[in-house]
Amino acid sequence: MRILMKDHLLIPVFHHDSASYTITELPNIPHHKHNPTYRFNSQIQTFLFGKQLLLDEIPHPVEELFTHVNEGYITLRRPFIKEGRKIKCARCGSSHHLATYPCARCGNEQCHYCRNCLMMGRVSACTPLFSWNGPSPSTLIVDQPLKWDGTLSTGQQQASTAVVAAIDNKKEYLVWAVCGAGKTEVLFAGIAHALKQGQRVCLATPRTDVVLELAPRLKKVFPHTTIAALYGGSEDRHLFANLVISTTHQLFRFYCAFDTVIVDEVDAFPYTMDATLQYAVQQAKKSVAATIYLTATPSRKWQKECRQNKRAYMTIPARFHRFPLPIPQFKWIGQWTSPLKNARLPFVLKKWLQQRIEKEKQVLLFIPKIKLIDDMLPLIQKLHPKVEAVHAEDPLRKEKVQKMRKQETLILLTTTILERGVTFPHIDVAVLGAEERIFTESALVQIAGRVGRSVEAPTGDVVFFHYGKTTAMVRAKKQILQMNKEAKQRGLLHE
Amino acid sequence: MNSCLFCQKEMQLPGGFQALFQKAAQSFWCEDCIAKWAFIKGPTCPTCHRWMETAEICLDCKKWQADPIYSGCLDENISVLAYNSFCQQVLAQYKYRGDYILAVAIADLLKSKLKQTSFDLITPIPLSEERRYERGFNQSEALITALGKKPTILLTRMHTEKQSKKTRKERLETPQVFRFTGQQEMSGKKVLIVDDIYTTGTTLYHAAKLLKEAGATEVRSLTMARS
After folding, report:
1. What is the pLDDT averaged over residues A431-448?
2. Mean pLDDT value of segment A345-368
3. Average predicted confidence (pLDDT) for chain A
4. Hey, are the CB atoms on B133 and A103 less than 8 Å from each other?
5. First to last CA, chain B
6. CB distance from A115 to chain B under 8 Å?
7. Which residues in chain A (67-106) have CB-CB distances under 8 A to chain B?
8. What is chain A's alpha carbon radius of gyration, rounded to the nearest angstrom?
9. Predicted interface score ipTM higher than 0.85
10. Do the beta carbons of residue B168 and residue B196 sit within 8 Å?
């Protein structure tokens, strides 16, 4: 699409001529004051409010949209921002993934597009970002949105109070809660507090699985609130909701939308994703807004900021069942790859597994590479028939996890995909080759956090089989010990 | 940093003295991605390049040969890959999401086959105006450019539904969707059509028929995948 400017009015054109411009070439984008006498389309209002969308994503005729632009109810933004020599995508903030193509839409031979957020529809130099600029849609405010009669542990209660204060004061706040602390319940009071004032809240999490799991839980405790669950291909895309549960990717479609953004599992991203995620959060929230981060394993950088009092945070160092976290044991296993090459299991590991098999205790065995599954699965199956393996691209992943839950599998071999999110009540955990680079500090803390999750079985073994201790292993253990110590000092554990 | 054009994973450059002094061959795909392709190896149907147990003419091609209108229009199809789920993923990102830059990486897979083929004109399967606007570019034209050739536009397409949304039967029964609009003298010319995928052959046979009628003596097609 190209745009023709006539007496400060913008007109979309769909042929290529020299009088028109792409949104990027347009010398200036006029900003009109709302025309109070214009009767805007309220469907467009609820659809576009707090969003930044491409023309292709909006189910309204382009002429009608541009009338709203000229009447001051929609703003158009440039898709790319120049920062010195760098050009960055205005939607996802990436400047490393730009490419060009000869574009049939604007006729330019070298039209930029962003590869980083391509799966959300192509942002290119000729696609403006549409946002609502008029009054916000009216919503129903509920007096007592929260219907929940559960109780919080002391640790949860302290964090919950802090979260309410941060949401009230529009501050940034980190809740550093150990695996199994019960993070979700900590948010209830804060979300309710915001909703009571008619504010909009977004809960963002990296994975679709988690969105699907959280949405029904929150719908139950906030029965009178409109809740949208957003992920790739979700039905709720068009829903205007005061509480939005979204994958972090879907955040890219929001602009100045939320009074509070809660980011779950901030650490679940590789380092390179971090900047993009931060950008998405900044874009999605209003200029004055609260940001709550939840994690069991903050990055080194964040840990340091916490220690130096540069970051407002609170820990929940104990699990809801008031038992300490299981401490990982380090066991030297030597050059564990060579027995595998000769189709034998490393002796130490074999012995450890046999002990669990005798007691019929379920085992989650983490391995550093997918390729090892082929070598190891038959060897372990010789010890016991009920052994399965699962990895990220496994089509039967869900079924296999389900089988483990139903205790139909005794030993489950897995790559790091099961490091977080899954809960099996009564298991021991081992890591083979804990010295490998993929087992970072946070991965190891998360892995150790799989053990002793339930009240019925609050303990269990965690063993890191290694060929040389790494800093990550030492730090992971130290972090867990530190949390237990703090929990004891604050009186959050059983005596 | 060298990273895979498709999955963005960093690629390790080969070490050692040889690598230091030789110009490293530029690779667009990482090893993991290459391992996911099903390269066609061994016996194929001599006409459509379908991967077979023995090199004999496949049932599909026999049907085309028996067809009163289209018999003999397409002389040969050349494909590099058998269609699989990875191929589907790559094509989805390239065509439907519009990741133009992948044309270079796909062309890289095709270039050795292109060298073995002789032709006078190389032409893309056209998109309708509407579809071209929607996608932003014509994927087969982009492949030709990425192969370092200059595409000659010989055909125009009337707007119809997407081929990929149709069933096999519907596709085989579609009437001619192209028109010959080329300005070139076609008699005695060898034409190579480039497209992303050969499914039932309908698209290519329709195009080939018009090219033959316009005077071309040989019409071949080069496609990334044979499904």
Report:
1. 93
2. 94
3. 91
4. no
5. 35
6. yes
7. 99-105
8. 26
9. yes
10. no
Strands (E), B58-146: 76-82, 121-124
| Average pLDDT of span A242-255 | 92
- Which residue of B lies nearest to A101 if distances are taken between CA atoms? B100
Nearest to A115 among B101, B132, B135 (CB): B101
Min Cα distance A347 → chain B (Å) is 31
Write the CA distances from A416 to A431, B35, B178, integer angstroms.
Answer: 10, 22, 52
Beta pairing partners, B157 = B178
- Residue A326 CB-half CA count within 13 A: 27
Looking at residue B55, the DSSP 8-state letter turns out to be: S
CA–CA separation, A296 and A284 (whole Å): 24
When CB atoms are compared, the residue of A14, A111, A118 closest to B97 is A118
A-chain residues near B93 (CB < 8 A): 118
**Is A124–B135 a contact, with Cβ atoms under 8 angstroms apart?**
no
Classified by CATH at the fold level, domain B31-226 comes out as Rossmann fold (3.40.50)
**What separation in angstroms does the CA of B25 have from each of A468, B13, B36, B149, B174?**
37, 10, 20, 21, 44
- Measured between CA atoms, the residue of chain A closest to residue B129 is A104
**What 3-state DSSP class applies to A384?**
coil
Cα–Cα distance between B135 and A102 in angstroms, integer? Answer: 11
Q: What domains appear along chain A, each with residue ranges and CATH number? A: 2-132 (no CATH), 154-316 (3.40.50.300), 329-489 (3.40.50.300)
**Chain A interface mutation, best of B137, B138, B150, B153, highest count of A Cβ atoms under 10 Å:** B137
Write phi, then psi, for A130 (nearest 5 degrees). -95, 130
The vertex-A309 CA angle with A304 and A315, nearest 5°, equals 75
Report the residue from B93, B136, B138 with minimal CB separation from A105.
B136
Which token pair is A289? 């807004």
- At residue A444, the pLDDT reads 94
Q: Is B169 exposed, middle or buried (0-12, 13-18, 19+ CB in 10 A)?
A: exposed
Helices (H), A89-129: none
Residue A196 reports pLDDT greater than 90: yes
Domain extents in chain B = 31-226
A386 touches chain B (CB under 8 A): no
User: Do the chains contact at B99 and A103, CB–CB below 8 Å?
Assistant: no
